Model the fold of this input.
Amino acid sequence: MATEVIKIVDPDNGSGTNYTSLSAWEAGEQGDLTGVRDEIAVAKCRCTGGTADTTAVDIAGWTTDSTRYIKIWTDPSESYRHDGKWNTSKYRITSNAYFATVNNNNEARIDLWLDGLQIENSRENESGAAGAGLWSYQDYIFNITVSNCIIRNTASSPCVGSGVTVYDAATSGTTYFKCYNNIVYGFSNSSYGGAGIRYHVVGSGATRHAIVYNNTLYGNFYNLSLIPDWTSDTVYFRSKNNLLYAHASGGADFYRTDSAGTWDVENDLSSDATSLDTSHRNQTVAFVDAANRDLHLSSSDTAARGQGTNLSSDSYLPFSTDIDGQDRGGSGAVWDIGADEYVAAYPYYAYAQQ
Amino acid sequence: MAQILVKAIDATHADPVKDRRGCYKRGMPVVVMPDTHTWGLDERPPKFVVLKLPGVPVEKVKKYIEPEREDTADADGRYQVFRRRLWKFRLDDMPTAALRKLRDNGELIIKVGDYADKYDYTWTQVRSYLRNLKTNTDETASL
Done:
């Protein structure tokens, strides 16, 4: 049984801080987790004084497997995780890095889980630069999970990269890309189709699983881009409860190159006519304050609230909370579409009990 | 107003290409922070040492934490990482007194320009141990 080795990352160097940047943590801890270390390497990120982590991190040179992996997160039981909207007093990593603010591009097996982070890239458009939030190009087996994150692009003219970019070039084995409860906006470059989430098959010979649930993707050129690229591989695309909204001019809320692979799509909502779920096309969603990217659902919304599939017992990726950590209502509940589950601030029954 | 966090021990990967591309080696700069920055519990020997450059803007030394990229672009026009860092301090070639100080105190104070306070070495002395791994020549630039 692997041991969790937890290191505290805090740019403000509060009590007990091991590293003052994620980049230094990566440099200090990188190595073989599967050998004598037999370890889950955990970076628990804090922000005790409001200072941003401003050095991009490359995750490279590690050896991992499915039980001895890398976990980078904010612990929701502490007070350093965002509250579902970009928050400058909570942990955030910001950069204008060439590839990505969080980059994994060393073409070795990686087992990585990012949870509850705020990630920003602000690189202005430049030939060759990707300027992504997370970028991962994989020639080997991988397990990559991205959950409960806010990922944004703040460049006035963004590069071609996406909020979450995964190129699946594995040539054997089984790959897993899991992405749920994330909010991604601002990746609007048109020349290469900047996306909120982009999963792109670029190899052959592997079995692949792309599982994309309950994300809110807003104002990207393509909000959700799932690209089989005419693969003859066994590829499973599972896309459910995603809220795809207000794509940038010339783009689309949903994009794929073709329909190769096995597709399991339920209740993906789009503001245009591109959702694969025809019953949720051309929808108008009421957000709390979309102009300022508070993409929580408004109490007045009827398009996304109560329109989702309950995934608490899903065979591939079961979960039961939203991006705020709020319970989505248990096994019998009808879920909302998107990263946020609308929960009344002071429900009626509380009044009734009084 | 810069401090450079420098890796003091090698990380290794069994695959030589992944080792070169991904692993930090002893002497490679990792992050750059302002003078006022305080370091965490693990950002010191044996894993790291710090080179302090009082009065030098962070932007002036950020180039030392850039990776070495491939000479030619890939099919998408991107320059992939060839080596984790382009620059590396030749720590083991530094004077014994400097190594002892790094080992014992975890830092060296480097005088740059008209800095008038206490220091260990000058930038002119230290830069001669800062190797560009692509050109295999030592730094000659001023800060």
Residues 100-353 of chain A form one domain.
